[in-house]
Sequence to fold (575 residues):
Amino acid sequence: MTPALQIRNLKKTYDNGFEALKGIDLSVEQGDFYALLGPNGAGKSTTLGIVSSLVNKTSGEVSIFGYDLSRDLVRAKSCLGVVPQEINFNQFEKVRDILVTQGGYYGIAAAEAGETADFYLKKLGLWDKRDEAARMLSGGMKRRLMIARALIHKPRLLILDEPTAGVDIELRRSMWQFLREINAQGTTIILTTHYLEEAEALCRNIGIIDKGSILANTSKQDLLRQLHTETFILDTDYSGSDDPEMEGFSARCMGEGSLEVDVDKSQSINTLFKALDQRGITVASFRAKANRLEELFLTLVESGLNAPENDHKGVAQS
Amino acid sequence: MTIAQIWIAFTTILVKEVRRFTRIWAQTMLPPAITMALYFVIFGNLIGPRIGEMGGYNYMDFIVPGLIMMSVITNSYANVVSSFFGMKFQRSIEEILVSPVPNSIVLLGYVAGGVARGLAVGFIVTLLSLGFTDLQVHHIGVTATMVLLTAVVFSLGGFINAVYATKFDDISIVPTFVLTPLTYLGGVFYSISLLPEFWQGVSKINPILYMVNAFRYGILGVSDVDIRVSYGMVMIFIVLLFSFSLYLLNRGKGIRS
Fold:
């Protein structure tokens, strides 16, 4: 099946000489829910900017559902919906007008675009604000408006650049649910996010990019299998100031009964609790220090930073 | 995109532009109406009778076509430069850039928006002039085509200005230091036949002179220049400015990294 997005040897050097992309390869299958992760300045937004035609590439190939951006731009763009990182609509326009106007840019008549606009305004909780100027919306509402705008022409591929940045937890969860729904209906979704919990909750495949190179491009499960150790924080009744010795585990005393314990993926949590029990330590509560993807992400990015040439293209290819 | 879809995209941009300048009518349509009304009162009614005839017409009749054209020029230019730069500034230009609408249609849409405001303000000024003079149209075809083509030229000029502008100052430099002097020296208030021969020659370098005079010919039937030269010049400007604007859009100058 033709990939929803195919990127080959994509390079981008800005006018100031900064090499943002060093020849990346990426493939996202149709129907996928894909996360592109990376630290600030890694090349995520440049990649998505090129795919969205907002940034000119230096070289390489990009095709959307088989339509090459250089040779078949109109059809490629017709398949694509984009939710950018920054608010980028006219703040003085009315909410519904923004959606209908966007439909017009895709050649959709006002009546038809209006019906789709009304559907998404209701679906995303913006119906009551439809006749208000966009500047009157809250931050979360503005983000939802941009999602509705990106969907007005029913794109086959939806790109979201940090769609839930600055959005409260409740709203973030409802946006996740909405994104899951449209993905289930067949829309391929690519998102970038700094909330790795978000990527872990939503995405099936994950790419990690840093310094313009792809460090990993594989399924979430494969990626998580690479995680050898997970660190837990335990609130205990331990009163010592030295690190407690426990058979098979490395534990660090953080003070006031708080212990940080590394658990290898070959070990079970039960074994840890047995070891704690043998030491006479009672656990009141425990939590993972960071979510699993976050740990892996940091490991990969750090190893990328430490690599001598830092030019490897991926840990694995899916 | 099909022809029908392209038409929808074009009308979408045009409607959006018309909605924009009518929504802020107090900034876009009222000021030129007040300014031109003052010109009519001061130059036409108060000073005009002391000046006497100009080009065979009383002074009020003589300046009306020039003032209408001046409002068309400044407003068609101002609409595109402020709207397109505003879209760049707010980044809402990205709404169009990610869509499949061809660059030529984007350009035509913005130019049509500029023309719409230029003609709307020109129409208001024309209505106001009826309160001061009995306006007769000598040649409706010349009047209509010249005002339309001139609005196209200056809409394109506004577009190029907006593409290069990086801050708000940049969108007022050209209107203030180029457009206004050229318009005032373009025969709006006087016939260049009043000038010494040398300055007549210098005036003939000014393209606005040709547009104002061709429009005046359409209304009064008098002109300082051959209107065939005016049409030729306007058409050359349109072709050159349209081609350059499209080149800038295709390159993504000022709008793509």
Q: What stands out?
A: The interface with chain A takes residues 1-2, 4-6, 8-9, 11-13, 15-16, 19, 23, 86-87, 90-92, 94-102, 252, 256-257 of chain B (CB under 8 Å).
